[in-house]
Each structure stands twice: as C-alpha cells, then as structure tokens.
Design a protein that fits this description.
mainly alpha; 307 residues; single chain; 77% helix
C-alpha cells in the first residue's frame, strides 16, 4: 500500500474517531434518561472490553502484564475508566452535552499545569496566556455569558463542576499513561486498562440497583448504549491508535479540535440543545487557549524539522 493511501486511511480513521467521540456526550445524555450512570458505564465498557480483546487477539499482541504492571494498569483503569466515566456520566445528568465537550477540551491546559507544578516544567509566556484564555472561555461557557453570576457564587451546574474535575482527572491519567505507552502496544495496554476499569465498575454495578434497570431500557436507550460501547469504547480507540501509527502526533492531535463542534451539531439535532452565542465564543476562546498551550516552542520546532 502506498504511503499516500496509508495517510488517507489514517486521516479517515482519526476523523471518524473524533466524530464518534464528539457524539458520545449526546449518546450518554440519551442513555441517562433510562438508566443510572453506573448501569450505562458498565454496559458501555462490557462491550468495549470485548471489542478491544478481539482487536488484541487479531493483532497477536496478547500478553499478560508482568510484576508492577498489574498495579499500574489497575490504577489507570480506576482513574481513566471507573472514576472518569462516573464523573462525566453523573455530570451529564445536569450539564449540557455541548458545555461538557467544551470543558473536556481544556484537558491539555491541566496537563500543562501538572507539568508546571509537579514536573517543574517551565511554561512560555504564550502558554501562560493560553491558560488564561482557556480559563476565561470555560467561565463564559458555564455561565452562558453571564459572568456576573460568578460574583454571586454561581459556577454553572453541579454537572459542570464534575466535568471540570473529569478534565483534570484525564490529564492525570494521560500523564501517568505516558511511560506505559512507551513499553506496551497501545491497543493491548488500553485493553487491560479498560478491563480493570470494568471490574471496578462491576463492583459498583452489582452492589447497586443497576441490574434491575436493564430490562427497563427502551430501544432508543439501547441504540445510545450500543453506540457508546461498540463505537466509542471499542472501534474509535482502535482507529485512533491506528492513525497515531501512520501520522505525526501533532497532526493526529489536531483532529481533537473538531470534537466539540461535532458535539454542538449533534446535540442541536438529536436532543435539541440550544446553540448559544456565548457558548460558541467561549468554546472558540478555549480552543485558542489550548492551541497556545500546545504550541511547540521555537527550539522544539527546529529540532523536529532537523530530525
């Protein structure tokens, strides 16, 4: 297969993954109309684990973790699956799908702050400006343009706050995942991480009333859950990591800027969420801030060109 065809396939896979993930917030809101967060998350990742397991088998990448990797994957599973999905699904009970997508887009900002305060990485002046811009954008989004609400102590909904915590949590998860991705194939690592997350979620699911809710889910709820499980937690991950193999990281990552716009369009069509000018302005402000935070320094850029 020619390099051009490989790149086109990789671009299509990255684009499809981002479209699916952008629609996931809407699918989650639909499914939450009929089942509690724990049930939705458990069903979603039951499907995701099976699909990733099949992918690992087909790629002949299966190998059991060794030594400390068991604990490492368990920690990542708790943070990246159990806790993260509980935060987002519970948050989406009161947060809008569009608002959630804009807030989640701030994850790179939290990663930069973790680098500053924990890893002692320096930030350039334009990165600091990006953090300030992204913060202002979040405030615009959650207050729907009424910044005066902040003086009265109103910071959006409880769900908005939980989603903001989920963005920080995903930044922690992503930072901790870096070392593992250098040692393990991405699909295999994600399979074990998701498996541990599913096991932890199973404890919550079977100790609550989650099982009794399954027979009550109507057809449209099942369509949303199947979309989340098969596409979002299964195929989209495989497509994303396949794209990362054939495209530069920066080029692949740029597709993520499209995700909130996908959510905006799908939410307006499927669940009739209003498109607010303040949310669009705030969202674009967030993306500009994130772009500044992610923008490589001149020295880094020169090194990449030399290599």
């Amino acid at each position: 297969m020619s390099q051009t065809k490989l790149n086109i396939n990789a671009i299509l896979k990255a684009l499809l993954a981002v479209i699916v993930w952008g629609a996931s917030f809407v699918a989650t809101k639909v499914s939450l109309q009929y089942a509690p967060p724990t049930t939705v998350v458990w069903l979603r990742f039951s499907m995701g684990v099976v699909i990733l397991g099949i992918a690992v088998a087909l790629k002949k990448q299966f190998a059991l973790p060794k030594g400390k990797d068991w604990g490492y994957f368990a920690l990542l599973g708790f943070l990246g699956i159990t806790f993260h999905q509980w935060l987002q699904s519970t948050g989406l009970l009161t947060a809008q799908a569009t608002t959630t997508a804009w807030i989640v887009a701030t994850t790179p900002v939290f990663m930069a702050l973790l680098g500053l305060f924990i890893l002692r990485e320096n930030l350039a002046l334009y990165q600091v400006a990006g953090i300030i811009l992204a913060t202002f954008g979040v405030l615009l989004v959650v207050t729907k343009g009424d910044l005066g609400a902040l003086t009265a102590g109103r910071f959006g909904t409880t769900g908005d706050f939980l989603v903001l915590i989920s963005a920080l949590n995903w930044a922690v998860f992503s930072t901790l995942s870096r070392s593992g991705l250098q040692k393990h194939p991405a699909t295999r690592m994600m399979f074990f991480v998701m498996s541990f997350g599913w096991i932890f979620t199973s404890v919550l699911f079977f100790t609550s009333s989650g099982l009794s809710k399954i027979p009550l889910i109507p057809w449209d709820g099942w369509i949303a859950i199947l979309f989340l499980g098969v596409l979002c937690s299964g195929i989209a991950y495989i497509f994303w990591y396949d794209a990362l193999k054939d495209l530069p990281v920066a080029q692949t990552g740029a597709f993520l800027y499209l995700e909130p716009f996908v959510t905006l369009i799908v939410a307006s069509i499927v669940i009739r969420e209003a498109i607010l000018l303040a949310s669009i302005i705030g969202g674009i402000t967030i993306l500009i801030g994130v772009w500044l935070v992610n923008r490589p320094s001149q020295s880094t850029h020169s090194t990449e060109e030399t290599d």
